[in-house]
Write a structure and sequence with these properties.
about 260 residues, about 0% strand, elongated
Length: about 260
Amino acid sequence: MSQSTKLKSFFVETGAISKFTGWFFHEFLRPRFEAREFLRQCYIVGYKSLPLVGLTGFIMGLVLTMQLRPTLVNYGVEARLPDMVSLSLIREIGPVITALIFAGKIGSSIGAELGSMRVTEQIDAMEVSGTNPYKYLVVTRVWATTLMLPILTILSDTIGLYGGYLGINIRGVMSMDLYVNEVLHTVGFSDLLPATIKTFFFGFAVGLVGCYKGYNSKKGTEGVGLSANSAVVLSSILIFIIDLVVVQITDLLGFN
């Protein structure tokens, strides 16, 4: 494939995703909202992802603490370990890693589910029966991922901080009260606000890309696998791009 063809495909794909996004907002603003399906998706997207997200957060906090300790000991600032762990987790590592795990689990699941419905003509059947498949399948899933990822990130950060506390006490001694006081003294509103806001955009990107890839799946059963795989890849790329943009904006606004 030539460079011009690749460039053309890129712009065609970008335009299609933009159109799909505009269609999402158009359908969302129109009644009626599928509340029952939305709540079901929140349960699937949020509650069923909690064990994996919680385990990931715990391991992140534990490993980060154990990796940072030797360096801080060499510089004689071991007492700053809770500060470093909490800032690293809440500002950057927690939101991004949780979003990537979320993209791998939920993005691929949505892409495969909708792709399977497309190739088996279930979406076409919904259109014939008078049901709006976009509103029922896409709008509910995108809003579920947008609202659930921030909650999962907060839980992951909390569990990660507990993992950091255990990591500190593997080779040292620090009370829970002192650890919590150090974390609360270090982490401020300027750290929590940008980290929380960008997770909404992460969740929106994961849900939208997963739905787009699945809803437009082709090539039969082979397309289902391609939809799931490409949903994860594109979602992960968008997460890094969004994170880069948010970091630049927060730096300009003086949050860092």
